[in-house]
Amino acid sequence: MELRFRYKPLRLVANYGSYMRPLALLLLSLVCFLAAQGTGISIFFHLFYLLLALLVLSYIWAWCNLHGLELSREAFTHRAQVGEDARERLTIYNTWRFPKLWVELQDHSNMPDHGSGFVAYLPGNEYRRWSARTRCNMRGKFTLGPATLVSGDPFGIFRLERTFPATNEIIVYPQTVDLPHFELPSAELPGGQDLRSRAYHVTPNVSTVREYAPGDSFNRIHWRSTARTGQLMVKEFELDPSADIYIVMDMQERVQQQLAPNQFDEHGDSVRDNESTEEYAVKTAASIARHLLDRNRVVGLIAWGQHREVITPERGGRQLFKMLEALAVVRAYGAHPLAEVLVGESSRFGRNCTLVIITPSLDERWVGSLQQLADRGGRAVVVLIDPKSFGGWVDPQPLLNRLASLRIPTYIVRQGDSLADSLREPLNTGR
Q: What mean pLDDT is reported for the chain?
Protein backbone atom coordinates (compact mmCIF):
# COMPACT_ATOMS: atom_id res chain seq x y z
CA MET A 1 0.00 0.00 0.00
CA GLU A 2 1.32 3.43 -0.97
CA LEU A 3 0.47 6.60 0.89
CA ARG A 4 1.34 9.89 -0.79
CA PHE A 5 0.77 13.09 1.08
CA ARG A 6 1.74 16.72 1.00
CA TYR A 7 3.41 18.82 3.58
CA LYS A 8 2.37 20.96 6.50
CA PRO A 9 3.56 24.59 6.74
CA LEU A 10 7.26 25.24 7.19
CA ARG A 11 8.64 25.88 10.64
CA LEU A 12 12.04 26.54 12.09
CA VAL A 13 13.56 23.50 13.77
CA ALA A 14 13.04 23.93 17.49
CA ASN A 15 16.51 23.67 18.92
CA TYR A 16 18.77 26.17 20.59
CA GLY A 17 21.42 26.34 17.85
CA SER A 18 18.93 26.94 15.03
CA TYR A 19 17.44 29.94 16.81
CA MET A 20 20.75 31.46 17.90
CA ARG A 21 22.46 31.53 14.50
CA PRO A 22 19.97 33.85 12.71
CA LEU A 23 19.53 35.94 15.86
CA ALA A 24 23.29 36.37 16.21
CA LEU A 25 23.56 37.40 12.55
CA LEU A 26 20.69 39.86 12.95
CA LEU A 27 22.26 41.31 16.10
CA LEU A 28 25.61 41.68 14.31
CA SER A 29 23.94 43.54 11.42
CA LEU A 30 22.24 45.92 13.89
CA VAL A 31 25.60 46.57 15.58
CA CYS A 32 27.10 47.45 12.18
CA PHE A 33 24.17 49.76 11.46
CA LEU A 34 24.62 51.59 14.78
CA ALA A 35 28.36 51.83 14.21
CA ALA A 36 27.74 53.27 10.73
CA GLN A 37 25.32 55.82 12.10
CA GLY A 38 27.69 56.83 14.88
CA THR A 39 30.95 56.99 12.93
CA GLY A 40 29.81 57.59 9.35
CA ILE A 41 32.36 55.03 8.09
CA SER A 42 31.04 53.47 4.86
CA ILE A 43 32.40 49.99 5.54
CA PHE A 44 29.91 49.57 8.39
CA PHE A 45 27.07 50.43 5.99
CA HIS A 46 28.38 47.82 3.55
CA LEU A 47 28.63 45.22 6.31
CA PHE A 48 25.09 46.00 7.45
CA TYR A 49 23.65 45.56 3.94
CA LEU A 50 25.74 42.44 3.35
CA LEU A 51 24.68 40.72 6.58
CA LEU A 52 21.03 41.66 6.06
CA ALA A 53 21.10 40.36 2.46
CA LEU A 54 22.81 37.16 3.64
CA LEU A 55 20.09 36.64 6.23
CA VAL A 56 17.27 37.10 3.69
CA LEU A 57 19.00 35.03 1.01
CA SER A 58 19.68 32.16 3.43
CA TYR A 59 16.05 31.97 4.52
CA ILE A 60 14.78 32.03 0.91
CA TRP A 61 17.28 29.28 0.00
CA ALA A 62 16.19 27.09 2.92
CA TRP A 63 12.52 27.75 2.12
CA CYS A 64 12.96 26.80 -1.53
CA ASN A 65 14.85 23.64 -0.57
CA LEU A 66 11.71 22.28 1.13
CA HIS A 67 9.09 23.71 -1.22
CA GLY A 68 7.65 21.51 -3.98
CA LEU A 69 8.39 18.22 -2.21
CA GLU A 70 6.08 15.23 -1.80
CA LEU A 71 6.63 12.12 0.26
CA SER A 72 5.15 8.65 -0.22
CA ARG A 73 5.33 5.67 2.14
CA GLU A 74 4.85 2.10 0.90
CA ALA A 75 4.42 -0.55 3.60
CA PHE A 76 5.15 -4.10 2.42
CA THR A 77 4.60 -5.70 5.83
CA HIS A 78 1.48 -5.28 7.97
CA ARG A 79 1.79 -8.51 9.98
CA ALA A 80 5.07 -9.99 11.17
CA GLN A 81 6.44 -12.20 13.93
CA VAL A 82 9.34 -11.62 16.29
CA GLY A 83 12.48 -12.62 14.39
CA GLU A 84 11.12 -11.63 10.97
CA ASP A 85 11.82 -8.46 8.97
CA ALA A 86 9.41 -5.58 8.40
CA ARG A 87 9.89 -3.79 5.07
CA GLU A 88 8.79 -0.39 3.84
CA ARG A 89 9.89 2.14 1.23
CA LEU A 90 9.93 5.94 1.46
CA THR A 91 10.11 8.08 -1.68
CA ILE A 92 10.77 11.84 -1.87
CA TYR A 93 9.53 13.57 -5.05
CA ASN A 94 10.90 16.93 -6.25
CA THR A 95 8.10 18.50 -8.28
CA TRP A 96 10.19 21.56 -9.13
CA ARG A 97 12.61 21.80 -12.06
CA PHE A 98 15.25 23.26 -9.73
CA PRO A 99 17.42 20.85 -7.72
CA LYS A 100 17.45 20.55 -3.92
CA LEU A 101 21.02 20.51 -2.67
CA TRP A 102 20.29 18.44 0.41
CA VAL A 103 17.18 17.12 2.09
CA GLU A 104 17.23 15.04 5.27
CA LEU A 105 14.39 12.61 6.00
CA GLN A 106 13.74 11.83 9.67
CA ASP A 107 11.36 8.96 10.41
CA HIS A 108 9.61 9.07 13.79
CA SER A 109 8.36 5.47 13.89
CA ASN A 110 8.06 3.98 17.38
CA MET A 111 9.13 0.51 16.26
CA PRO A 112 12.29 -0.59 18.12
CA ASP A 113 15.53 -0.52 16.07
CA HIS A 114 13.80 1.18 13.15
CA GLY A 115 16.06 3.22 10.84
CA SER A 116 16.02 6.96 11.50
CA GLY A 117 16.20 8.18 7.87
CA PHE A 118 18.63 9.39 5.21
CA VAL A 119 20.05 12.49 3.47
CA ALA A 120 19.63 12.92 -0.29
CA TYR A 121 20.35 15.31 -3.17
CA LEU A 122 17.28 15.81 -5.39
CA PRO A 123 17.68 16.90 -9.03
CA GLY A 124 14.79 18.73 -10.69
CA ASN A 125 11.69 16.61 -11.34
CA GLU A 126 13.39 13.56 -9.84
CA TYR A 127 12.89 11.35 -6.80
CA ARG A 128 14.95 9.44 -4.27
CA ARG A 129 13.92 6.22 -2.53
CA TRP A 130 14.91 4.68 0.76
CA SER A 131 14.08 1.06 1.53
CA ALA A 132 14.00 0.20 5.23
CA ARG A 133 14.26 -3.35 6.51
CA THR A 134 13.79 -3.64 10.28
CA ARG A 135 14.24 -6.78 12.32
CA CYS A 136 11.20 -7.28 14.58
CA ASN A 137 12.68 -7.77 18.04
CA MET A 138 9.63 -6.87 20.14
CA ARG A 139 5.98 -7.93 19.92
CA GLY A 140 3.27 -5.28 19.81
CA LYS A 141 1.40 -2.84 17.60
CA PHE A 142 3.69 -0.14 16.22
CA THR A 143 3.31 2.99 14.10
CA LEU A 144 5.48 3.61 11.03
CA GLY A 145 5.67 7.37 10.73
CA PRO A 146 5.14 10.28 10.83
CA ALA A 147 8.11 11.62 8.86
CA THR A 148 9.86 14.99 8.74
CA LEU A 149 11.89 16.57 5.94
CA VAL A 150 14.66 18.90 7.11
CA SER A 151 16.83 21.22 5.00
CA GLY A 152 18.69 24.53 5.20
CA ASP A 153 20.97 26.95 3.44
CA PRO A 154 24.64 26.41 2.48
CA PHE A 155 25.81 28.78 5.24
CA GLY A 156 24.10 26.82 8.01
CA ILE A 157 22.12 29.82 9.24
CA PHE A 158 18.58 28.46 8.87
CA ARG A 159 17.35 24.90 9.34
CA LEU A 160 13.70 24.40 8.39
CA GLU A 161 11.47 21.33 8.48
CA ARG A 162 8.18 20.03 7.14
CA THR A 163 6.11 17.31 8.84
CA PHE A 164 4.26 14.61 6.88
CA PRO A 165 1.69 13.18 9.32
CA ALA A 166 0.46 10.04 7.51
CA THR A 167 1.32 6.74 9.20
CA ASN A 168 0.99 2.98 8.79
CA GLU A 169 0.50 0.36 11.49
CA ILE A 170 2.24 -2.98 11.85
CA ILE A 171 1.41 -5.78 14.29
CA VAL A 172 4.29 -7.98 15.44
CA TYR A 173 3.18 -11.34 16.77
CA PRO A 174 5.11 -13.01 19.60
CA GLN A 175 7.66 -15.64 18.71
CA THR A 176 6.63 -19.30 18.83
CA VAL A 177 8.83 -22.37 19.17
CA ASP A 178 8.17 -26.05 18.49
CA LEU A 179 7.20 -28.10 21.54
CA PRO A 180 7.49 -31.72 20.35
CA HIS A 181 7.36 -33.23 23.84
CA PHE A 182 4.70 -31.10 25.52
CA GLU A 183 1.58 -33.06 26.51
CA LEU A 184 -1.61 -32.45 28.46
CA PRO A 185 -2.97 -34.92 31.00
CA SER A 186 -5.88 -36.95 29.66
CA ALA A 187 -7.33 -34.19 27.53
CA GLU A 188 -9.50 -36.51 25.41
CA LEU A 189 -12.79 -37.39 27.06
CA PRO A 190 -13.28 -41.11 27.76
CA GLY A 191 -16.24 -42.21 25.67
CA GLY A 192 -16.62 -38.76 24.18
CA GLN A 193 -19.22 -36.05 24.62
CA ASP A 194 -21.70 -35.13 21.91
CA LEU A 195 -21.14 -31.41 21.38
CA ARG A 196 -23.86 -31.00 18.71
CA SER A 197 -21.88 -28.12 17.25
CA ARG A 198 -21.53 -27.67 13.51
CA ALA A 199 -18.00 -27.87 12.14
CA TYR A 200 -16.83 -26.09 9.00
CA HIS A 201 -14.11 -28.66 8.35
CA VAL A 202 -14.15 -32.41 7.91
CA THR A 203 -14.20 -34.44 11.16
CA PRO A 204 -14.84 -38.15 11.81
CA ASN A 205 -18.36 -37.35 13.10
CA VAL A 206 -21.18 -36.98 10.54
CA SER A 207 -24.35 -35.49 12.01
CA THR A 208 -26.72 -35.33 9.01
CA VAL A 209 -26.98 -34.83 5.26
CA ARG A 210 -28.50 -31.97 3.29
CA GLU A 211 -28.93 -30.82 -0.30
CA TYR A 212 -25.84 -29.65 -2.18
CA ALA A 213 -25.32 -25.88 -2.28
CA PRO A 214 -22.95 -23.96 -4.58
CA GLY A 215 -19.55 -23.75 -2.93
CA ASP A 216 -19.72 -27.10 -1.12
CA SER A 217 -16.64 -29.25 -1.53
CA PHE A 218 -17.04 -32.40 -3.64
CA ASN A 219 -15.40 -34.52 -0.93
CA ARG A 220 -18.48 -33.87 1.25
CA ILE A 221 -20.91 -35.47 -1.21
CA HIS A 222 -22.70 -38.50 0.27
CA TRP A 223 -23.05 -40.75 -2.77
CA ARG A 224 -25.49 -43.26 -1.25
CA SER A 225 -27.97 -40.52 -0.35
CA THR A 226 -27.40 -38.96 -3.78
CA ALA A 227 -28.26 -42.25 -5.50
CA ARG A 228 -31.35 -42.76 -3.32
CA THR A 229 -32.79 -39.25 -3.71
CA GLY A 230 -31.68 -38.53 -7.26
CA GLN A 231 -30.03 -35.20 -6.31
CA LEU A 232 -26.66 -34.24 -4.85
CA MET A 233 -26.53 -34.57 -1.06
CA VAL A 234 -23.62 -33.47 1.17
CA LYS A 235 -22.59 -34.47 4.69
CA GLU A 236 -22.75 -32.16 7.72
CA PHE A 237 -20.03 -32.63 10.34
CA GLU A 238 -19.90 -31.84 14.04
CA LEU A 239 -16.92 -31.21 16.29
CA ASP A 240 -14.85 -34.04 17.68
CA PRO A 241 -15.69 -34.98 21.28
CA SER A 242 -12.66 -33.45 22.98
CA ALA A 243 -12.22 -31.29 26.04
CA ASP A 244 -12.00 -27.51 25.92
CA ILE A 245 -8.55 -26.14 26.75
CA TYR A 246 -8.11 -22.70 28.25
CA ILE A 247 -4.70 -21.02 28.39
CA VAL A 248 -4.91 -18.75 31.44
CA MET A 249 -2.20 -16.08 31.69
CA ASP A 250 -1.39 -14.23 34.90
CA MET A 251 -1.05 -10.59 33.82
CA GLN A 252 -1.04 -9.00 37.29
CA GLU A 253 1.50 -6.20 37.28
CA ARG A 254 2.86 -6.58 40.82
CA VAL A 255 4.02 -10.21 40.38
CA GLN A 256 6.11 -9.55 37.26
CA GLN A 257 9.91 -9.44 37.30
CA GLN A 258 12.56 -8.33 34.80
CA LEU A 259 16.35 -8.36 34.76
CA ALA A 260 16.93 -4.73 33.77
CA PRO A 261 15.67 -1.92 36.03
CA ASN A 262 12.56 -0.06 34.91
CA GLN A 263 13.29 2.48 32.18
CA PHE A 264 11.01 5.09 30.61
CA ASP A 265 10.95 6.72 27.18
CA GLU A 266 10.43 10.40 26.37
CA HIS A 267 6.64 10.00 26.67
CA GLY A 268 6.87 8.55 30.18
CA ASP A 269 5.93 5.01 29.10
CA SER A 270 7.88 2.07 30.49
CA VAL A 271 10.36 0.48 28.11
CA ARG A 272 9.78 -3.23 27.74
CA ASP A 273 12.52 -5.79 28.21
CA ASN A 274 12.47 -9.17 26.47
CA GLU A 275 14.14 -10.70 29.54
CA SER A 276 11.08 -10.42 31.77
CA THR A 277 8.47 -12.78 33.14
CA GLU A 278 5.83 -10.96 31.06
CA GLU A 279 7.55 -11.64 27.74
CA TYR A 280 8.43 -15.22 28.68
CA ALA A 281 4.79 -15.85 29.60
CA VAL A 282 3.54 -14.45 26.28
CA LYS A 283 6.05 -16.53 24.31
CA THR A 284 5.05 -19.63 26.27
CA ALA A 285 1.33 -19.03 25.70
CA ALA A 286 1.82 -18.48 21.96
CA SER A 287 3.94 -21.61 21.59
CA ILE A 288 1.51 -23.81 23.54
CA ALA A 289 -1.44 -22.43 21.56
CA ARG A 290 0.24 -23.21 18.24
CA HIS A 291 1.27 -26.67 19.48
CA LEU A 292 -2.28 -27.59 20.53
CA LEU A 293 -4.07 -26.05 17.54
CA ASP A 294 -1.72 -27.86 15.16
CA ARG A 295 -3.08 -31.05 16.75
CA ASN A 296 -6.67 -29.96 16.06
CA ARG A 297 -7.45 -29.24 19.71
CA VAL A 298 -10.08 -26.79 20.96
CA VAL A 299 -8.16 -23.94 22.60
CA GLY A 300 -9.15 -20.63 24.20
CA LEU A 301 -7.33 -17.81 25.99
CA ILE A 302 -7.94 -15.82 29.19
CA ALA A 303 -5.74 -12.86 30.14
CA TRP A 304 -6.69 -9.99 32.44
CA GLY A 305 -4.07 -7.42 31.46
CA GLN A 306 -4.76 -3.79 30.52
CA HIS A 307 -8.27 -5.09 29.86
CA ARG A 308 -10.15 -8.36 30.20
CA GLU A 309 -9.26 -10.56 27.22
CA VAL A 310 -11.27 -13.76 26.71
CA ILE A 311 -11.15 -15.82 23.51
CA THR A 312 -13.63 -18.68 23.49
CA PRO A 313 -12.24 -22.12 22.63
CA GLU A 314 -12.16 -23.01 18.94
CA ARG A 315 -9.80 -24.85 16.64
CA GLY A 316 -8.04 -24.19 13.36
CA GLY A 317 -5.62 -21.69 11.89
CA ARG A 318 -8.02 -18.78 12.23
CA GLN A 319 -8.10 -19.32 15.99
CA LEU A 320 -4.31 -19.27 16.13
CA PHE A 321 -4.09 -15.86 14.44
CA LYS A 322 -6.85 -14.54 16.68
CA MET A 323 -4.85 -15.59 19.74
CA LEU A 324 -1.54 -14.30 18.36
CA GLU A 325 -3.13 -10.91 17.66
CA ALA A 326 -4.35 -10.70 21.26
CA LEU A 327 -0.98 -11.84 22.62
CA ALA A 328 0.83 -9.23 20.50
CA VAL A 329 -0.69 -6.34 22.46
CA VAL A 330 -1.49 -7.78 25.90
CA ARG A 331 0.44 -6.10 28.71
CA ALA A 332 0.92 -7.04 32.36
CA TYR A 333 -1.02 -4.03 33.66
CA GLY A 334 -3.63 -6.09 35.50
CA ALA A 335 -4.66 -5.35 39.07
CA HIS A 336 -6.39 -8.67 39.78
CA PRO A 337 -4.38 -11.60 41.19
CA LEU A 338 -4.58 -14.99 39.52
CA ALA A 339 -6.87 -16.37 42.24
CA GLU A 340 -9.50 -13.71 41.42
CA VAL A 341 -9.18 -14.39 37.68
CA LEU A 342 -9.83 -18.10 38.17
CA VAL A 343 -12.83 -17.42 40.40
CA GLY A 344 -14.21 -14.79 38.03
CA GLU A 345 -13.99 -17.10 35.01
CA SER A 346 -14.96 -20.31 36.84
CA SER A 347 -18.33 -20.47 35.07
CA ARG A 348 -16.46 -21.23 31.83
CA PHE A 349 -14.65 -24.23 33.27
CA GLY A 350 -17.00 -27.19 32.95
CA ARG A 351 -16.45 -30.86 33.56
CA ASN A 352 -13.45 -32.32 31.75
CA CYS A 353 -12.12 -28.82 30.94
CA THR A 354 -8.32 -28.48 30.94
CA LEU A 355 -6.53 -25.34 32.12
CA VAL A 356 -2.98 -24.38 31.22
CA ILE A 357 -1.93 -21.86 33.89
CA ILE A 358 1.03 -19.62 32.98
CA THR A 359 2.15 -17.49 35.92
CA PRO A 360 5.13 -16.08 37.81
CA SER A 361 3.04 -15.78 40.99
CA LEU A 362 4.21 -17.65 44.09
CA ASP A 363 1.01 -16.84 46.02
CA GLU A 364 -0.54 -20.23 46.90
CA ARG A 365 -4.10 -18.92 47.05
CA TRP A 366 -4.70 -19.64 43.36
CA VAL A 367 -3.81 -23.31 43.90
CA GLY A 368 -7.08 -23.74 45.82
CA SER A 369 -9.04 -22.85 42.66
CA LEU A 370 -7.27 -25.65 40.80
CA GLN A 371 -8.28 -28.07 43.55
CA GLN A 372 -11.93 -27.05 43.10
CA LEU A 373 -11.58 -27.57 39.34
CA ALA A 374 -10.22 -31.09 39.94
CA ASP A 375 -13.18 -31.85 42.21
CA ARG A 376 -15.53 -31.03 39.31
CA GLY A 377 -13.65 -33.37 36.98
CA GLY A 378 -11.39 -30.79 35.32
CA ARG A 379 -7.66 -30.94 34.78
CA ALA A 380 -4.87 -28.38 35.12
CA VAL A 381 -1.27 -27.95 34.04
CA VAL A 382 0.91 -25.23 35.54
CA VAL A 383 3.79 -23.49 33.74
CA LEU A 384 5.66 -21.48 36.38
CA ILE A 385 7.81 -18.64 35.05
CA ASP A 386 10.41 -18.71 37.82
CA PRO A 387 10.55 -15.10 39.16
CA LYS A 388 13.71 -15.81 41.14
CA SER A 389 15.69 -16.32 37.91
CA PHE A 390 14.59 -12.81 36.83
CA GLY A 391 15.88 -11.09 39.95
CA GLY A 392 13.19 -12.02 42.47
CA TRP A 393 14.10 -13.11 45.98
CA VAL A 394 11.25 -15.49 46.96
CA ASP A 395 11.99 -19.22 46.69
CA PRO A 396 9.42 -21.04 44.46
CA GLN A 397 9.99 -24.42 46.14
CA PRO A 398 7.07 -24.21 48.66
CA LEU A 399 4.64 -23.59 45.77
CA LEU A 400 6.16 -26.46 43.79
CA ASN A 401 5.74 -28.76 46.80
CA ARG A 402 2.08 -27.74 47.12
CA LEU A 403 1.43 -28.46 43.44
CA ALA A 404 3.22 -31.79 43.73
CA SER A 405 1.08 -32.79 46.70
CA LEU A 406 -2.03 -32.18 44.57
CA ARG A 407 -0.49 -34.17 41.69
CA ILE A 408 -0.79 -31.21 39.30
CA PRO A 409 1.73 -31.48 36.43
CA THR A 410 4.08 -28.52 36.74
CA TYR A 411 6.67 -27.16 34.33
CA ILE A 412 9.15 -24.46 35.30
CA VAL A 413 10.63 -21.94 32.86
CA ARG A 414 13.74 -20.06 33.95
CA GLN A 415 15.43 -17.05 32.41
CA GLY A 416 17.78 -18.06 29.59
CA ASP A 417 16.48 -21.65 29.32
CA SER A 418 15.20 -23.17 26.09
CA LEU A 419 11.40 -23.23 26.13
CA ALA A 420 11.27 -26.57 24.32
CA ASP A 421 13.56 -28.14 26.94
CA SER A 422 11.66 -26.54 29.83
CA LEU A 423 8.37 -28.01 28.58
CA ARG A 424 9.80 -31.44 27.83
CA GLU A 425 8.92 -33.14 31.15
CA PRO A 426 6.91 -31.91 34.15
CA LEU A 427 8.63 -31.74 37.53
CA ASN A 428 6.03 -34.16 38.87
CA THR A 429 4.13 -36.75 36.89
CA GLY A 430 0.69 -35.80 38.19
CA ARG A 431 -0.91 -38.24 35.77
A: 85
